[in-house]
Amino acid sequence: MKSTLDNDRPIFQQIKEMIEEDILSGLLKPDEQIPSNSRLVSYYGINPVTVHKGVTLLADEGLIYKKRGLGMFVAPDAPDILRKSHGAAFQSEYAAPLVRQARALGMSDADIHAHIDEALEEVAEERANGRPAHPKKEEDDSNE
Question: Which of 138, 125, 19 is nearest to 82 (CA)?
Fold first, then answer.
């Protein structure tokens, strides 16, 4: 998860998206416990209702499930659900605008491919060097 939140979007949405990203990246695996509400509240210094709203959206979408008395866990099919939903939006939200912007800057296909290759190398290097601090679950922590 990111170590900070931005002020441009609703915080509950950012909490939801960060957990989704951790599921997609494999940082949170199927049937693994997600960070508890109280842990997220403490880590980000935000209102418990805000965290609850983000976590509830994940549960409503079938991405997480509750184990009574233990907390919330990643649904077994959550990675597949997210890949489908995010993959469908990738072309229109990311790829097409990227190409339009590159064309506006006068870039050729080769230039665009070179920039993408460079970005792929940067991401691989970031992954090789580890991830930022993450409010992972604690032993006696459970979601409310």
Answer: 19
Please state, in angstroms and rounded to a whole number, the distance separating the CA atoms of residues 51 and 59: 12
* CA neighbor of 55 nearest in space, from 37, 81, 33, 76: 37
Domain that holds residue 20: 11-76
pLDDT along the chain (144 residues), means of 10: 82 96 96 96 94 97 96 97 89 92 96 95 87 48 46
Whole-structure pTM value: 0.69
Residue 140 covered by a domain: no
- CATH classification of the domain holding 19: 1.10.10.10
